[in-house]
Design a protein that fits this description.
The protein is α+β, with helices and mostly antiparallel strands. Helix content is 29%, strand content 40%. The protein has a seven-stranded mixed beta sheet with strand order 1-2-3-4-5-7-6, with helices on both faces. The relative contact order is 0.15.
């Protein structure tokens, strides 16, 4: 059974390893660890037993939040883990007074785009050549809510 919890120092190495599995330009372990010391950040992990199977992270300023990264281990995809993480992040952000969440997603990432649209995100912009490795545009998606 998957459970969600706030990321702690104990999760950092596993999150950094999952970055390597999921992304062509992964964050380092030091970069992930620095998020725990950033008062603007909120990161959640999805756990099965003692194993990190997914995570989501955000930074918030003045009531607006940006989803930094979300990832689910390939063996756990298409099982609702990503959706649970995004919903849990949104709920946690509401509790801290945030009123919106934005993110960038690769233009070719149809499964992620479909998930975000299902959750109420809408495209509000485009960042040309945002991603490298391979070079690709990013859609800017945003969801707003009332507190």
């Amino acid at each position: 059974m998957i459970r969600l919890e706030k990321m702690t120092d104990a999760h950092v190495a596993a999150v950094a390893e999952l970055e390597k599995v999921c992304f062509s330009d992964p964050w380092s372990e030091n970069s992930v660890a620095s998020e725990l010391r950033n008062p603007l950040s909120l990161w959640l992990v999805a756990m099965e037993g003692d194993t990190v199977v997914g995570y989501v992270g955000s930074q918030s300023v003045e009531g607006e939040s940006d989803m930094m990264n979300v990832a689910v281990h390939p063996e756990y995809r298409r099982q609702g883990v990503g959706q649970k993480l995004v919903i849990a992040l949104e709920e946690a952000l509401k509790e801290t007074g945030n009123h919106c969440l934005s993110l960038e997603v690769r233009a070719s990432n149809a499964p992620a785009i479909a998930l975000y649209e299902k959750l109420g995100f809408a495209q509000v912009g485009l960042r040309p050549n945002y991603y490298r490795n391979p070079k690709e545009d990013a859609y800017i998606l945003r969801k707003e809510w009332t507190l």
